[in-house]
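Backbone-to-sequence.
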């Protein structure tokens, strides 16, 4: 078997022969009358067509050449006959076209003796001469890291991968259409921030040379900015955009991903739950054509009743720990007993969250987690009569949290006190705690109406599609090759 360098050398020689034969191996102007999918769907025997595509296979029978080519929409067969196209053009193709090359052809549609719809070539041109071979059809790219690094080849050789990302595009299209139909206005907020807000996560830090200040890449889709817009008179808004979190990689986590957040003035978290339930059912039906899913050990139907799960009661039921009265040492002891790593933080907020994350893996859903303790939700409004609990909800599906929403805290005094508490956590070494934003508190002092906010992201798509975070991302971040 020839080495890659030997193959490249041979193909470079073919490239040179094409140029010597008067054919540009990389032309800019390409003529084609329709896609290969359109030809297949509207085949007319005897019609003259101009087509273009990448050669995926070639086989020869003396003065006959058959090749299949692919244009991203479909595959079609081309046939070259020496006595039809002429010996020179036939030989130029036969001796210099490889699998992986892009060619354009002019010819007439016909059906072969074996019943194969084909195009009989009258003229052909090289569109792009490939210098490296494609992976073998039956072996392809076996190494997962190599697949992600060369995603273009992964998509080319595996149609199901392309279909996954077609579905992902439809996923966000359905989301956008849903909110537009509900009269929400799409907005854009900053990606670079002086202080991160809207979530508890470790941010990426960068530097603004012109202002000579440090900035952070946002960890939420502009939560504190969107609330400013609510205060300014926008009543129903949403944003779809990238967020960045300088954290670990797992089947459910990446450092860069797409999220949506919406804010709805004069609505509370209960109205938000109803809206989210309708949204999730529509996504499932429109993108996956079903509301029923079976994923590993989980089986659920998004059209079923969404039960409400009390945060405190569920943790108590599964672990025996009362998160309100338990000490940090009791929580640590229980986590050790459960073989759960809590190295991400040892304060009560982090320990409480870690206990819940252990419990959620045992819930298939669909369900809403409610009645969260205030210490883990610094931006949510306290429940009337229960000040240590907040009006918050999280969809729980297949053992994971598929979003977060709440009746937004609009009391500036309470918000400042909670920011101060988060600052204490930051000072104590908790790099996921929320940063103080005095300008946001100032906005609240001017007055923000009661509001429901909610955010969710790609994890919901990854889950319904049954893929990992990296598999469901076109170009996941890769370590440089050594």
């Amino acid at each position: 078997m020839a080495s890659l360098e030997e193959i490249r050398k041979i193909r470079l020689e073919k490239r040179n022969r094409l140029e010597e034969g008067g054919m540009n191996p990389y032309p800019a102007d390409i003529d084609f009358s329709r896609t290969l999918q359109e030809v297949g769907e509207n085949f007319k025997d005897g019609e003259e067509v101009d087509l273009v595509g990448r050669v995926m296979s070639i086989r020869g029978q003396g003065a006959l050449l058959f090749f299949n080519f692919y244009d991203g929409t479909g595959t079609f067969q081309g046939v070259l006959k020496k006595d039809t196209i002429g010996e020179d053009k036939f030989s130029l193709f036969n001796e210099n076209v490889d699998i992986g090359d892009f060619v354009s052809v002019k010819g007439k549609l016909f059906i072969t003796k074996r019943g194969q719809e084909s195009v009989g070539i009258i003229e052909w041109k090289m569109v792009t001469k490939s210098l490296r071979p494609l992976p073998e059809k039956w072996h392809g790219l076996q190494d997962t890291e190599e697949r992600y690094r060369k995603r273009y080849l992964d998509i080319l050789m595996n149609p199901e991968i392309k279909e996954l990302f077609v579905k992902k595009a439809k996923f966000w299209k359905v989301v956008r259409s849903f909110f537009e139909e509900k009269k929400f206005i799409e907005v854009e907020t900053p990606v670079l921030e002086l202080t991160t807000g809207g979530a508890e996560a470790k941010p990426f830090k960068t530097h603004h040379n012109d202002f000579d200040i440090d900035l952070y890449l946002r960890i939420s889709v502009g939560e504190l900015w969107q609330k400013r817009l609510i205060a300014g008179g926008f009543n129903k808004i949403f944003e779809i955009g990238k967020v960045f979190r300088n954290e670990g990689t797992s089947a459910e986590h990446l450092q860069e991903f797409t999220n949506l957040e919406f804010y709805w003035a004069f609505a509370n978290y209960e109205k938000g739950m109803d809206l989210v339930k309708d949204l999730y059912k529509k996504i499932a039906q429109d993108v996956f054509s079903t509301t029923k899913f079976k994923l590993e050990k989980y089986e659920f139907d998004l059209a079923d009743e969404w039960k409400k799960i009390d945060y405190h009661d569920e943790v108590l039921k599964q672990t025996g720990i009362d998160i309100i009265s338990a000490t940090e040492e009791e929580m640590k002891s229980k986590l050790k007993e459960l073989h759960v790593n809590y190295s991400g933080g040892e304060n009560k907020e982090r320990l409480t969250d870690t206990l819940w994350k252990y419990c959620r893996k045992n819930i298939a859903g669909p369900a809403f987690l409610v009645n969260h303790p205030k210490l883990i939700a610094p931006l949510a409004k306290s429940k009337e009569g229960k000040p240590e609990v907040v009006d918050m909800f999280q969809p729980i599906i297949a053992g994971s949290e598929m979003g977060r929403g709440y009746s937004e805290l609009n009391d500036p005094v309470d918000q400042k006190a909670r920011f101060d508490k988060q600052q204490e956590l930051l000072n104590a070494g908790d790099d996921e705690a929320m940063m103080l934003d005095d300008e946001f508190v100032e906005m609240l002092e001017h007055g923000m109406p009661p509001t429901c906010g909610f955010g969710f992201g790609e994890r919901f798509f990854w889950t319904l599609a049954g893929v990992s975070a990296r598999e469901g991302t076109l170009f996941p971040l890769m370590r440089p090759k050594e």
